[in-house]
Write a structure and sequence with these properties.
single chain; 319 residues; mainly alpha; disordered N terminus
Length: 319
């Protein structure tokens, strides 16, 4: 008997995922819509849900990080060597950038006199106190002027001056050249047919090589003077005796052994600062990063160069 509503046998079968199937499409694969084809496992361009992986990329291992660090160091050394050769080739071509060199002499040398004066005087005072207290235990107070003057002449004056001045002028060079790099001013210099190495690097290199020996000599005089004042006022060593002992101890070879290292330090400062400045990327954050890396690299490079230069000076002048 059939009625208006009909029996269960008269109802059409429900599709999976319909109202009668609470599990929906999860109960089995559904047919794709008309006009679309099901992804094939043999199709290399199809996305297979079973092969998709989500999450952060794997972290490099310790060995991989060390290899990347050494490769980066070698890359930087190669870039600095290439920049040095290019700067020397461009520097001896006309024009010689005399006005730019004079401006850099003022920025590198005259502006650094304050920090050189303060640090040299107080380092000399500290050295006087330390050596005087140490030598007094062994009855060798009269050797204090000789030890201080000799250590200042051969090591402290050139190296500490390069470290202190290098941190100041190296960071300034990196920031200045880096700001030009991120604002595409260096590209504009190239577009105008000029050489950035000659316009930017050469004046800073020449000024640093000229100024560092002068600052080293000034630091030697001020450091010994500060030590002489402290020993006279606190340890009863007359200033005249201190001066005579210092002059009788230091020879021209001692003075030259320290002074000959300062042009190399100046070249390291200028080339390192300009290199990190010209390779700056990433806007103002990149400029700050380059400045920090410059200060660290200059300090490490000066200490390493100081060791090898000291060995070379002793080998040439063993006396």
């Amino acid at each position: 008997m059939t009625g208006g509503g009909g029996g269960p046998q008269d109802r059409p079968p429900e599709r999976p995922g319909g109202p009668g199937d609470p599990l929906g499409s999860r109960s089995g694969p559904s047919n794709p819509p008309p006009g679309e084809s099901r992804p094939s496992a043999s199709d290399p361009y199809s996305v297979q849900p079973s092969t998709m992986r989500f999450g952060p990329p794997p972290q490099p291992t310790f060995i991989e990080r060390q290899v990347d660090s050494w490769l980066g160091l070698l890359r930087h050394l190669g870039q600095v060597a290439e920049m040095t050769l290019g700067t020397l080739r461009a520097g001896f071509r006309r024009p010689f950038e005399g006005k730019a060199i004079i401006a850099q002499l003022e920025a590198v040398g005259v502006a650094s006199m304050g920090i050189v004066t303060v640090t040299s005087v107080f380092i000399g005072m500290v050295m006087a106190v330390q050596f005087a207290f140490g030598l007094r235990k062994f009855g060798g107070m009269e050797y204090t002027p000789r030890v201080i003057s000799l250590s200042f002449a051969r090591e402290l004056a050139p190296t500490l001056t390069a470290i202190i001045v290098g941190g100041r002028i190296g960071a300034g060079m990196a920031a200045e050249v880096g700001a030009m790099a991120v604002t595409e001013q260096i590209d504009a210099v190239r577009a105008l047919g000029a050489d950035p190495l000659k316009k930017l690097v050469w004046p800073r290199l020449v000024a640093s090589v000229i100024v560092l020996p002068l600052l080293g000599a000034i630091a030697l005089v001020l450091g010994v003077g500060g030590a002489m004042v402290v020993t006279d006022l606190q340890f009863d060593i007359p200033a005249s005796f201190f001066l005579r002992s210092s002059l009788s101890t230091i020879t021209m070879m001692d003075f030259a052994a320290g002074l000959v290292k300062t042009p190399v330090f100046g070249a390291i400062i200028a080339l390192t600062g300009c290199h990190f400045g010209m390779t700056t990327r990433g806007g103002t954050a990149g400029v700050g990063n380059s400045t920090t890396r410059t200060v660290v690299a200059i300090s490490i490079a000066i200490f390493i160069a100081d060791f090898f230069l000291t060995k070379a000076v002793i080998a040439v002048w063993p006396a």
